[in-house]
Amino acid sequence: MQALQQQDFMALVDNHPRAIMLSTTEPRIAYVNRMFRSVTGYHAEEVLGQAPSVLSSGLHSPEFYQDMWKSLSDQGRWEGVIWNRRKNGETYPQWLTIYPVQRAGRQFFAGIFTDVGDIAAADERLASLAYYDTLTQLPNRSLFQEFLKARVSQRERDGGCFAVLYVDLDFFKSINDLHGHECGDQVLQQAAQCIQSVLRKGDVVARLSGDEFAVIIELQNDDDLESVCQRMTQVFQAPIIVSYREYFLSASVGAAVYPDHGRTGAELLQNADRAMYSAKMAGRACYRIYSAVDNERGRHRQRLSEALIASLKTAPEEFSVVYQPQYHLATGKVAGLEALLRWNHPEFGTVSPADFVPIAEQRGHIHELTEHLVRCVLADLPERLGELPQRLGLAINISARQITDSRLEALLEPLFDRIRGVGWTPEIEITETHLMNLSRQCLNRLREFGEQGVVVAIDDFGTGYSSLAYLHTLPLHVLKIDRQFIWRLGGKSGDSRIVSAILGIAEALGLEVVAEGIETEEQRSKLQELNCHRGQGYLMARPAPWGAWEDDLID
Ligand code: C2E
Ligand code: MG
Ligand code: MG
Question: How many angstroms separate the CA atoms of 417 and 548, rounded?
Answer without folding.
Answer: 24
